[in-house]
């Protein structure tokens, strides 16, 4: 039973990876037999993984038709952004109060990893590292469920579009905003950190929504 459970988790993570690499796209119908062949596993763990992904909102299931990758609506994206902001702004004060030199260095590394990944074009890796920087703030609270929930929300937003469409100068803006947020945290300025995070989320939404929902802008 444990072996089957581990295999289901492995397949689940592989399917998420396919989404991150845009090998599975929003609206695409998934045939679990084909996925089983592609991932070189039996049908059972694939079917189990697809069921979990559907329960989490990554996939849609229609009886007699099967699974397809969920298309995010603008309303859903707005709700995800609202939750992200509530989590981060709401807990940054606690993160600062629980901050240690080791935690601050870990957050600094997350910021540095993002900066080092910037090249002449936008890559999906940057979005993963951006998520890790923000999740790193929440990890300072010492609540694994909190940071895991934040990562899940980010994935549900960023899996929906081709990141290459984001302007490169926005990436440089994100780098600057990360630095300002980090400095406010380092200086233990809770109110300034909250204000910077709110502005950061607002800018992110303003720049991403025209890409994700071009027909609704």
What does this structure look like?
Helices cover 71% and strands 5% of the residues. The chain has 217 residues and is mainly α. It has 2 domains: 2-69, Orthogonal Bundle (Arc Repressor Mutant, subunit A); 74-216, Up-down Bundle (Four Helix Bundle (Hemerythrin (Met), subunit A)), CATH 1.20.120. The protein has a 3-stranded antiparallel β-sheet. A hairpin with a 3-residue loop joins β2 (59-62) and β3 (66-69). α4 runs antiparallel to α9 (190-212), α5 runs antiparallel to α6 (124-139) and α8 (168-186) runs antiparallel to α9 (190-212). The protein is globular and about 55 Å long. The model has no long low-confidence stretch (mean pLDDT 90).
Could you list some keywords that capture this structure?
2 domains, mainly alpha, 217 residues, 9 helices
Secondary structure elements and pairings:
Layout (H helix, E strand, L loop, with lengths): L1 H19 L8 E2 L1 H8 L3 H13 L3 E4 L3 E4 L4 H24 L3 H17 L6 H16 L4 H15 L9 H19 L3 H23 L5
Antiparallel strand pairs: 1-3, 2-3
Helix pairs in contact: 1-3, 2-3, 4-6, 4-7, 4-9, 5-6, 5-8, 6-7, 8-9
Short description:
With 217 residues, the chain is mostly helical. It has nine helices and three strands. The chain has two domains: 2-69, Arc Repressor Mutant, subunit A; 74-216, Four Helix Bundle (Hemerythrin (Met), subunit A).
């Amino acid at each position: 039973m444990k072996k089957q459970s581990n295999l289901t988790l492995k397949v689940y993570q592989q399917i998420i990876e396919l989404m991150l690499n845009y090998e599975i796209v929003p609206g695409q119908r998934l045939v679990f037999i084909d996925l089983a062949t592609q991932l070189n596993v039996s049908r059972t763990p694939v079917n189990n993984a697809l069921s979990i992904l559907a329960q989490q909102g990554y996939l849609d299931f229609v009886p007699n038709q099967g699974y397809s990758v969920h298309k995010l609506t603008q309303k859903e994206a707005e709700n995800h952004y609202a939750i992200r902001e509530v989590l981060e702004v709401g807990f940054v004060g606690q993160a600062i109060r629980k901050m240690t030199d080791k935690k601050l260095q870990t957050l600094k590394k997350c910021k540095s990893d993002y900066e080092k990944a910037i090249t002449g074009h936008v890559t999906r890796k940057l979005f993963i590292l951006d998520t890790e920087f923000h999740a790193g703030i929440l990890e300072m609270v010492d609540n694994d469920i909190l940071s895991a929930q934040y990562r899940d929300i980010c994935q549900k937003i960023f899996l929906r579009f081709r990141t290459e469409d984001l302007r490169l100068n926005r990436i440089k803006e994100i780098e600057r905003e990360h630095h300002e947020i980090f400095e406010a945290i380092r200086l233990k300025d809770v109110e300034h950190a909250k204000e910077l995070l709110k502005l950061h989320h607002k800018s992110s939404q303003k720049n991403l929504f025209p890409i994700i929902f071009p027909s609704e802008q």
